[in-house]
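Molecular record:
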Amino acid sequence: MTGFKEYDDYDALGLAELVAKKEVTPTELLDEAISRLEKVDGTLNSVPLKHYDEARSAIDSGLPDGPFKGVPFLLKDLHLLMKGTVTSFGSGAFKDNVADHDSTLTERYKEAGLVIFGKTNSPEFGLAGTTEPRLYGPTHNPWNTDHSPGGSSGGAAAAVAAGVLPLANASDGGGSIRIPASACGLFGMKPSRARTPLGPDRGEGWGGMSASHAVSRTVRDNAALLDATAGPAPGDPYSCPEPKRPFLDEVSIEPRPLRIAVTDTGPNGNSADAAVSAGLEATVKLLESLGHTVTQAAPAIDPNDMTVAQIGLIASSTALALDMRGEALGRPVAQQEVENITWAIAENGRSLSGTDVARGTLLIHQFSRQVAAFMNDYDVLLSPTLALPPVPLGTVNMDGDDIGAYIDINARYMPFAGLFNMTGQPSMSVPMHWTDDGLPVGMMFTGPFGNEATLFQLAGQLERAQPWAHRRPPVHAAN
């Protein structure tokens, strides 16, 4: 490798292979990633927390011989801790929150050989489908900087799409891996509930709705990273069925003809707009040409019950996060330390009874059974990831006073993803379409609980049939 002009020709596994062959060193890869970040981040604002010294120290101390040895990596600034560094949750209330230990998943990333050199921007507590926290300011979409990169893993997706690195950590409690993957033209897999650990500080997030994994440029990177990090940790409250073989192996396997249900309407009745529907129609045609059977169908879920469940679990969890931060600070968190919508959600959470929270848990378990019964007749459920193309920055205002407007835009923009956080099913966004004005549009494929294998097979087939990794946005480190 000369001058690193070939950096963009390799995904994360490819870069790790170069390290293994001693054609490039981890330090050279880190220097390249840092140089690229510094080139684009003044425009994108994707990585507010830089950990360059920690990354160099990790290399100097000797990296484990994992599958990603020497590959640069970014953590999302939400929940995942790295000893000696700040995890702010995108919130002023946590801006000085220095960890005294690593999260379990952080440990597994390090064991895989990844070199962590920063944390990516996230909305406060991950409560928005965009990434515009008051603390660090908005992250811009590299495809059009007036638009949102999605959220809550918007900083991660913007950095990967802009060519800073080939994959980055992301998490998903209501679509937060899949939404930014769609908005930035990447592949994003939300794994099954409990596929990856959330410890040691949490047994689950948002009542089991949250999962951590990654956004990536290629499908195989995503699969290999899940192989490296999946599996329960001691003390986890539950686990996921073991896969039959490595997920990386699934990517190269042609799937059998699949029974695919398709819908362009979310459980709340909101449908995709014309630009998104055009992508869905083209995707259906491609799937049929590949031998799959596609049928109009969707599970019937009561949208009011979904709202009750989300309020019960998310609002109470938000209130608890602020209360626990107050305990750590030795004083209550003040209203001005968090954004207005966050405060309103927390106040709502404090007003709920234990019965309300228990009802939320009961409802998501009921949804799981309803959708599982539906999936008896189908292998995969297809919909758009988002009902709209990436929205302009400012569309979702977390510092406004109108929580009704916040609820309304979320219902209009992202009606599809949240159900599968409630059911715990694996669900992926695949970059299948770009609008006439150059904005990415992802398609969402969801499988039965525990069956990431079929999704990775299908994603690999789609990637071969209609490649996307070569696409570069206007803001790109190689430009």
Summary: The CA atoms of residues 209 and 221 lie 24 Å apart. The chain is about 40% helix and 10% strand.
